Fold this protein.
Amino acid sequence: MKPIYIGLLGLGTVGSGVVKIIKDHQDKIMHQVGCPVEIKKILVQDLKKTRSVLVENNLLTTNPKEILNDSEIDVVIEVMGGVKDTKGFLLEALRQGKHVVTANKDLMATHGSELLNVSSLNGCDLFYEASVAGGIPILRGLVDGLASDRITKMMGIVNGTTNYILTKMSKEGRAYEEVLKEAQDLGFAESDPTSDVEGLDSARKMAILATLGFSMNIALEDVLVNGISGVTEEDLHYGNQLGYTMKLIGYAHRQGEKVEVSVQPTFLANHHPLASVQNEYNAVYVYGEAVGETMFYGPGAGSLPTATAVVSDLVGVIKNLRLGVNGRSAVTPQFSKCLKNADEKFSKYFLRLHVQDEVGVFSDITSTFANFGVSFEKILQLPVEKNKIAEIVLVTHTASLNSYEKILNSLRDKKTIKEIKSSYKVEGNS
Ligand code: NAP
Ligand code: HSE
């Protein structure tokens, strides 16, 4: 029986997992698709590198043409990462009539619609399940499982590295740099972990989720992004005292025609379902008007979990080949993009201030909030050892982003406010 031949671009963390799953699960794959699957060539940078899986040397190449120009190769699996070269390789593969499976959220968040367009024009599949939340089948969940519903809200922990860091910092009191290094060693982090810790990796995933969930072309630039590199042990400590857990939360909300998408360090009430998601695990909460609340949970990064999603996409491509329906699954967005403005975005906020410890300062802060119609849900005041400074930690009731930004600007102008130490979104009632 003629095998389906695969060209694999990349043999790092995810690529090694793909090789292992194709080998170890060959029987199950064959049972589902009716033919063997064989990796014919693997593109790498360094032919001499020691690999974590056993592959024959003659499979490795540094020349992409050996895959892109090989007419026997049916499917290209891209797990090398990067945008510029990779986009060129995948466009070439699609033009050559090869189906593509990719784990590359960077590429899909920035050039996804162009690539999907080219794939449809060439009658090819382009699947990218592994690009969001590693091993969790969230994209199929949205596109197929919830196809009949109108999704209005998605909230997710979609970056394993930052969740690992925040978990270890808050549960074990460990230092940021040390746990970041550990996440890198475990293969969760991107080659440049700045995109993990500064929230860009999550923003790419939220752009993909919002585009599919809201059927609207959401670009990376539409996502408001803040990372976790500025989060301090003191912030975690005070949040904990008030009943909150810090997570890097991707938030996508639709109200009527309008949407907002953001990625921000957020204090979750301890009983919030996302607060218990630990280490490299990811979870996406999805609210549909008809179904109500749903939650998708699982490992969001790592070799085998991510490779599971990649190989499941491969199985999808081969099933489509058997049915002769490749290239028909990309759907044009139903709605034009319409983003909320700051008056239409609502949240509660955590604010930590250093203020002059003297009469009238507290009431001045209270009246500044009152002037913009914002009241407090919680408040803590503690002395700071030196210079007659007091620490004020407060959580507001729900306020518009517009009012909250005006309050911050007004506080910045006051001589008695020495420093705005930190400010975070808050979700849930504690
Ligand atoms: P990785 O460990 O750095 O592996 C990248 C592989 O691609 C390496 O084998 C490397 O070759 C090869 N490569 C890179 N640039 C190349 C080039 N220009 N030409 C030829 N080969 C090249 O990366 P990874 O963690 O597996 O991630 C791969 C992709 O999956 C990325 O898009 C990432 O965002 C995505 N992803 C990763 C995870 C995860 O948990 N790691 C989860 C979901 C999605 P050498 O080995 O010779 O250096
Ligand atoms: N660097 C990513 C993470 C890999 O930590 O979640 C999975 O996309």
About this structure: The radius of gyration is 24 Å. The pocket of L-homoserine (ligand 2) is lined by residues 134, 159-161, 188-190, 196, 201, 300-301 (CB under 6 Å).
